[in-house]
Amino acid sequence: MEKSDYLEMYYQMVLIRRLEERAAELYQQGKIGGFLHLYIGQEAVSTGLISARKPQDRLITAYRDHGVALNAGIPARAVMAELLGKATGTSKGKGGSMHMADVEKNYWGGHAVVGAHLPIATGLALGDQYQGKDGVTICMFGDGATNIGFFHEALNLSKVWNLPILWVCENNQYGMGTSVDRASAVIEIRQKAQGYDIPNERVNGMDVIEVRMAAEKHLEYVRSGNGPFFLEAVTYRYRGHSMGDPERYRQKDEVEKWQEEDPISIYRRYLLKDKIVRATQLDDLEMKVEAEVQNAVEFAESSPEPAAEELFTNIYAD
Amino acid sequence: MPKITMREAISQALWEEMERDERVFILGEEVGVWGGTYAVTKGFYDHFGEKRVRDTPIAEAVIVGAAIGAALTGLRPVAELMTINFAFAAMDHIVNEAAKLRYMFGGQFTIPLVLRAPGGGGRQLGATHSQTPDVIFAHFPGLKVVAPGTPEDAKGMLKSAIRSDDPVLFIEHATLYQVRGEVPDGEYTTALDQARVQRPGRDVTIVTYSKMLEISLKAADQLEKDGIQAEIVDLRCLRPLDMEPVLASFKKTNRAVIVEEGWQSFGIGAEVSARIYEQAFDYVDAPIRRVAQKEVPLPYNRTLEQMALPQVEDVIQAVKEVL
């Protein structure tokens, strides 16, 4: 890894954190509607994972998708504009928080129905396999998605057809307010992959370097024609499931315990301890993030609403 | 013009499109080695190979989901659902994904997908395997829903569906596969947004589609013996619904009967009659009548099943009531 790679990952993690903090404020002010599922606490997973992908690798995730969108290379201003429902948003204001995508960046969304994008991911991978391309489809989902039938149909088919998919379960310990041990027959989600004879690994999702190393290794395994691989990243969501979550299902000290394992702090300590970068470089990046977030908010707020005729566009292609 | 069965028409359309375009492939339960549970894809596996004729597990959500994903990558999948009754197991992918992804992502996604699904009653398959739930799917903007009633239309419309850049639900009727009809020689396609007058007449308009076209044509033959000329408009497409030929016919006859195989409540008849009342109220000479399935789950017993399904006599009686 180059020094610039380390810095870029730090920048992206801080960008996700700060942008979402601002999004929460804008939500409280009534400027963002609908649901807002914050990724705060889980930044190391998508940052580490996506830093290892190649341009031909397709990316698809669930509804907690702002971080993934930023990691995929969508500008912060387009993410923020989508949150505000503006014409300049990633989906022209028609998708909102849960439906961000950019086909040019090989990022296929942002899907709001739990588990429903896993079967779609098998098709993305089939498309590459069919056309003889060497892309890997990276499909991210939460622990909650592993209890629905879609997950099992998709994992089974991926193995039967030897599809180039890296399944990535972000085990953040809760499906909405129901903890893994109350909803899943197995607590280590990777055991479910075992049932489909899919090789698997469980990593610390709070450690961006660990996630990146695992992703690099397993992407190459899948790319080499070995079929799917299943990666479970153990992580934690600091905020509620969505805004307005009373969080009766967990104690404050549990959240605080995980905040001591904060992925950004861990990474910062690692970078400084091993003298990979200087503290001032990281401080500079944080300043840069502040400016970018401020710029994104100003861009989004000053962007136009979608035109009325947009209501009836994009329903059909023909 | 050659006379072929509906099965042959559908099979020819698939074969020709697969020969024409490498991106077209078939996936579904028993489409390959078995040759299709209704034998539509017989011989395909040997000719096109397992890459393009793909047997799947019995898992409808991932059949449709995988087809959507493959379509997003630029392929043109034709997914076969063994029956439309099993579409319910893939409902989320049909109505929440296929129908909405393009819109939700601001037009970035294109989904050139065909879902073939045979349905309909009359084969003593019991309540879960005999339904005609076409209207449910036609409810959702973003899908195209077509249900041809003749071999000519089936072939031309399936070819158009495969070439369409939108998701198309192509509904077949399992009791029509053996029906013969003339198809044009050579290459042709048929629009996915046009109703068609299948029989001209001046006294009454019968609006119908799919299997009920056959029933309505038989009724019209008998009515003719009584000197009644029924004009039959075949909708062919449920979404988009082409009302022009319906309204043109109605403005001539001023009387209409709508014949559908599914249940009457919230059905095609309700939609079409409402649109006639809205758009041609001044031409109404008699209350519009609907002929549809009795509001029961279809029973296994042959006599009971036929009692529940619309019959030729029901159409004749409804026509006589509006005259």
Q: Give the CATH topology of the largest domain in chain B.
A: Rossmann fold
What CATH architecture of chain A would you give?
A: 3-Layer(aba) Sandwich
Total of DSSP H or I helical runs spanning 4+ residues of chain A: 12
Please give the largest β-sheet of chain B.
7 strands, mixed
Number of structural units classed as domains of chain B: 2
The percent range for helix content of chain B is 25-40%
Summed up, what is this model?
The complex is a heterodimer of chains A (318) and B (323). Chain A has 318 residues and is α/β, with parallel strands linked by helices.
Explain what the structure shows.
The complex is a heterodimer of chains A (about 325) and B (about 325). Chain A is built from 12 helices and 8 strands. Chain A is an alpha/beta fold and about 325 residues long. In chain A, the strands form 2 sheets. In chain A, strands 2-1-3-4-8-7 form a 6-stranded parallel beta sheet, sandwiched between helices. In chain B, the strands form 3 sheets. Chain B has a 7-stranded mixed beta sheet, sandwiched between helices. In chain B, strands 9-11-10-13-14 form a 5-stranded mixed beta sheet, with helices on both faces. A two-stranded antiparallel sheet of chain B has the order 1-8. Chain B folds into 2 domains: about 180 residues, Rossmann fold, CATH 3.40.50.970; about 130 residues, Rossmann fold, CATH 3.40.50.920. Chain B has about 325 residues and is an alpha/beta fold. Chain B is built from 12 helices and 14 strands. Chains A and B meet through strand 2, helix 5 and helix 6 of A and helix 3, helix 4 and helix 5 of B.
